[in-house]
Automatic annotation (TrEMBL):
Name used for this protein in its record: CYTH domain-containing protein
InterPro entries in the record: CYTH-like_dom_sf, CYTH_domain, YgiF
Record SMART domains: CYTH
Ranges where the CYTH domain occurs: 25-226
Length: 250
């Protein structure tokens, strides 16, 4: 975990482009696993924020039989996002800061049935377009997610805006499944230091720990028949130390 954060410290103190529902952006977020005993309290905290709402998220992730996208650090999904309908998303490898990654989203309509992949939906992101144009075999469903997301935005000290997203549900790979219970703090704009202060407060209050594995990484492991171990619940102190490092560098 400390190695992951040493990599992360190299560049996330400066501004990044905020995430958009549809279009191209850079996503910067901190993902924290929630112990079962604290899930209710974290949910109550997010639900009490102004504008909090619940969104059902049902996603299918795609790759080749040889995991060409995953091996290159990319993830491609089609996700049902409630009123927003279907959104096709591609995300690239982590950048030098260890937290942010290139992302492109394309609206794919509101029909009840999942649409077919559009291999040109991400042409605005040249790296993604080149990757998809060069895949050696068809892209097929690999695993899915069934998530209920409770989300709200909050303005912190200094005008920093963040989105809190509580995800609860399951990763689904073949006949296997793995639970999901995590809180994502996504930076929208403003200084980064208040984000780390808020993260530290939540970690101390609820015993949260860093979850460096994305849902895509865990889902691909599940699809390969590998066990998806739980988060390291003994790493609260290491999580606080890592956030403290971030606060000093912000």
């Amino acid at each position: 975990m400390r190695r992951w954060w040493r990599l992360a410290r190299s560049g996330a103190s400066g501004p990044a482009r905020r995430r958009h529902t549809v279009g191209m952006s850079t996503e910067l977020e901190l993902r924290l696993a929630i112990p079962a005993a604290a899930a209710g309290a974290v949910a109550a905290h997010v639900a009490a924020l102004p504008g909090a709402r619940t969104v059902p998220l049902r996603a299918t992730y795609f790759d080749t039989a040889s995991s060409a996208l995953g091996r290159a650090g990319w993830g491609l999904r089609l996700r049902w996002e409630g009123e927003a309908g279907w959104v096709q998303t591609i995300k690239g490898p982590l950048m030098a800061d260890g937290l942010s990654r290139p992302e492109h989203n394309a609206a794919r309509g509101t029909a009840a049935e999942r649409p077919a992949l559009d291999m040109h939906a991400h042409d605005a992101l040249p790296e993604a377009a080149a990757l998809l144009a060069g895949v050696p075999s068809p892209l097929l469903p690999q695993f899915g997610t069934e998530i209920e997301r409770l989300r709200a935005q909050r303005t912190l000290a200094g005008g920093t805006r963040v989105e809190l997203a509580l995800d609860r549900g399951h990763l689904l790979g073949g006949s296997a499944s793995a639970p999901v219970c995590e809180l994502e703090l996504e930076w929208l704009d403003g200084p980064l230091a208040p984000l780390w202060a808020e993260a530290e407060r939540l970690v101390r209050a609820h015993g949260l720990v860093l979850e460096p594995r994305s849902k895509a990484a865990r889902g691909h492991a599940l699809a390969r028949g590998e066990a998806v171990p739980p988060a390291d619940w003994a790493s609260v102190d290491a999580t606080l130390a890592a956030i403290s490092d971030w606060a000093r560098s912000a």
